[in-house]
Design a protein that fits this description.
By secondary structure, the protein is of the alpha+beta class. The protein has six helices and four strands. Helix content is 31%, strand content 15%. Strand 3 and strand 4 form a beta hairpin.
């Protein structure tokens, strides 16, 4: 069995044939059987299978089996992104993302994802994050199981938390302030009808 090429004079296309030779004992002569396996590329010389004619396991002119290309694999997912996109923009504008990255460089994306989940799913416990992850796009992009979330919170030190609050405080010192109402009640009696709020100090 060998590969034989032949050019069609009408079209100028060169075809490759898988040729098998045999001996006819009755007629005492050689016989050949040809099967078209494809066209020969004019530039590369490779055999390009023709539709409906390529034979499984056909060989190229080099004698090696023709290689088939990798089959493309496409994964599609439907994810909600509107709410998490809005929260992500807020986090960037308020400096939350930058401060978390500085204080928690290894886990800041996980902390953001957990924060987004707790805001959007305030009535659901954190162990349901696995299901929420399947339908929402979030900064971490991977599932955080219940044991992993416990480890995440346990890894936060007091120094890291205090540093984060200090950084956030510096961002708001010029725009925000604390207001204390020191108004007092002149009596704690529940039976006196004339009791009223006193003046603000």
């Amino acid at each position: 069995m060998s590969i034989v090429t032949q050019t069609d004079k009408r079209t100028g296309i060169t075809y490759a044939y898988d040729t098998t030779y045999s001996w006819d004992k009755e007629k005492q002569q050689s016989r050949s059987k040809r099967v078209c396996v494809g066209k020969v590329g004019p530039e590369t010389g490779d055999i390009v299978p023709t539709r409906g004619r390529a034979k499984k396991g056909s060989k190229s002119t080099s004698g090696k089996p023709a290689k088939t290309g990798p089959k493309p694999f496409v994964e599609t997912r439907h994810l909600y992104y509107g709410a998490t996109y809005l929260l992500n923009e807020f986090a960037n504008e308020l400096g939350l993302t930058a401060d978390l990255r500085q204080c928690f460089p290894e886990t800041y994306k996980q902390l953001l994802s957990v924060a987004f989940y707790l805001i959007l799913e305030d009535n659901n416990p954190l162990y349901r994050f696995e299901k929420w992850h399947l339908t929402h796009k979030h900064p971490y992009g991977e599932c955080i199981t219940s044991p992993r979330s416990s480890e995440l919170f346990a890894s936060i030190t007091d120094n890291q938390a205090n540093k984060f609050f200090r950084l956030q405080g510096r961002r708001r010192v010029e725009d925000e302030y604390w207001a204390y109402d020191s108004t007092s009640i002149s009596s704690y009696s529940e039976t006196l009808a004339q009791v009223k709020y006193g003046k603000n100090k």
